[in-house]
Amino acid sequence: MSGFGEQESRGYDRRASKLLGGLYRHIADEAAAATGAGEAVLDVGTGPGLLLAHLGRRRPDLLLHGVDLSPHMIALARANLAEHAAELSVGDVGALPYPDNSFDLVVSSLSMHEWPDPVAAAAELERVLRPRGTLAIYDFRFVRDASMRSALGARFAAPTVRRKVVRPRWYPIGLYAQWSARAA
Question: Using the 8-state DSSP alphabet, how is residue 89 labeled?
Answer without folding.
Answer: E
